[in-house]
C-alpha cells in the first residue's frame, strides 16, 4: 500500500517534471533562435566562411541561388526585403557583385551592418580589370574570414571567445592545406594550365602557377576564332594535356579545345555555387590535387 502511494506520487511528480521540461525546451528553442545573428551573404563561399566562424550562433542565407552563375545574378525585390530584415550583409567585393552599390544604398539606413569581405586583400588585376576571385586563394580566404570574425565579435561581444576559437581552427585548416601543396608546386617544372573562366588568378599567385582561360574574368563571351587559335597554339607549344572545365561556364569550348590539341577535359571547381557533398576545404583540396597531378604528369 505504502509502495503504491509512493509510485503514485512519483508518477505525478514525473508528470510535472515532464511538463516542466517541455515548457522549458520550448522557451529555450525560441530564445535560441531569436538570439542568433541573421546574416545574408552574396555568394556561396562566404556562406561557408560565415557558418564556420558563426557556428550555432548565426543563421546564414546566400543571396545568389544555387546553380546560378553569380556573374549573371541581379537582386530581386524579395532579396531587398530579406536584406532589410537581416542584421549583417557580407559581400565579396572587388566588383564580384556589380549590383552591390544599389543594395548598400537601400539598406544602409535600415540597421544592417554592411561588410566588404575583401578589405585588406592584396588585389590583383588582369588585363586592367580587378580580379574578384579572392576566395579561391587560401591566403585571401583567411583575410575574408578574419573580416567576418571581426564583424561577429563586434556585433555579438558575449560570444567573442567562441568566434575567435572557430576562426583560429579554420585558419589552421587553410594554412595546413597551403603548407601541404606549396612545396609540391615549387618542385614542378610545369606551371601553366588552361581553365574555363579566369577564376584562378589568386590561386595561381599563391602557388606560382599561370592560368590561361577560355572565358574572361567575368565569364563573359566565348573566345573569338582568333583567341581560340591562340589557345590551341599555347597548348601545343606548352604540351598541355589537360583542359580544366567548369560546370557553369563554356564546357563546350573547353571540349573543342581539348579535341584540337589531344588533351583531356577535367572538372575544376570555382565555388561560385555550392558543390554537392564537398565543403570549402574539400573543394580546394580537390582543385589543388587535380592541378598538381595533371601538371606533374604532363
Ligand atoms: Zn568568376
From TrEMBL:
PROSITE patterns, A to Z: PROKAR_LIPOPROTEIN (PS51257)
Coiled-coil regions listed in the entry: 138-180
InterPro entries, per database record: AdhesinB (IPR006129), Bact_metal-bind_prot9 (IPR050492), Lipoprotein_PsaA-like (IPR006128), ZnuA-like (IPR006127)
Family matches, as Gene3D superfamilies: Nitrogenase molybdenum iron protein domain
Keywords on record: Coiled coil, Signal, Transport
Domain of life assignment: Bacteria
Record-given protein name: ABC transporter substrate-binding protein
Source organism of this protein record: Clostridium gelidum
Lineage of the species this protein comes from: Bacteria, Bacillati, Bacillota, Clostridia, Eubacteriales
Amino acid at each position: 500500500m505504502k509502495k503504491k502511494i509512493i509510485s503514485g506520487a512519483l508518477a505525478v511528480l514525473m508528470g510535472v517534471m515532464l511538463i516542466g521540461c517541455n515548457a522549458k525546451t520550448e522557451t529555450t528553442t525560441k530564445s535560441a533562435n531569436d538570439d542568433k545573428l541573421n546574416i545574408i551573404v552574396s555568394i556561396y563561399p562566404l556562406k561557408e566562411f560565415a557558418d564556420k566562424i558563426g557556428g550555432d550562433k548565426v543563421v546564414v542565407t546566400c543571396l545568389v541561388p544555387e546553380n546560378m552563375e553569380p556573374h549573371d545574378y541581379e537582386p530581386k525585390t524579395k532579396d531587398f526585403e530579406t536584406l532589410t530584415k537581416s542584421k549583417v550583409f557580407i559581400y565579396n567585393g572587388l566588383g564580384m557583385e556589380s549590383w552591390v552599390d544599389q543594395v548598400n544604398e537601400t539598406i544602409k539606413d535600415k540597421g544592417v551592418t554592411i561588410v566588404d569581405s575583401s578589405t585588406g586583400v592584396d588585389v590583383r588585376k588582369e588585363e586592367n580589370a580587378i580580379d574578384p576571385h579572392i576566395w579561391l586563394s587560401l591566403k585571401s580566404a583567411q583575410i575574408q574570414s578574419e573580416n567576418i570574425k571581426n564583424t561577429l565579435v563586434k556585433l555579438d561581444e558575449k560570444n567573442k571567445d567562441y568566434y575567435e576559437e572557430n576562426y583560429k581552427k579554420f585558419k589552421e585548416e587553410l594554412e595546413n592545406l597551403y603548407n601541404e601543396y606549396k612545396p609540391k608546386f615549387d618542385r614542378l617544372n610545369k606551371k601553366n594550365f588552361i581553365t574555363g573562366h579566369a577564376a584562378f588568378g589568386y590561386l595561381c599567385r599563391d602557388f606560382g602557377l599561370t592560368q590561361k582561360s577560355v572565358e574572361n574574368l567575368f565569364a563573359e563571351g566565348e573566345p573569338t576564332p582568333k583567341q581560340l587559335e591562340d589557345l590551341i597554339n599555347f597548348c601545343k607549344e606548352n604540351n598541355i594535356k589537360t583542359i580544366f572545365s567548369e560546370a557553369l561556364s563554356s564546357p563546350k569550348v573547353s571540349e573543342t579545345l581539348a579535341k584540337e590539341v589531344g588533351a583531356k577535359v577535367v572538372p575544376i571547381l570555382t565555388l561560385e555555387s555550392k558543390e554537392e557533398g564537398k565543403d570549402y576545404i574539400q573543394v580546394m583540396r580537390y582543385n589543388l590535387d587535380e592541378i598538381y597531378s595533371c601538371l606533374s604528369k604532363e
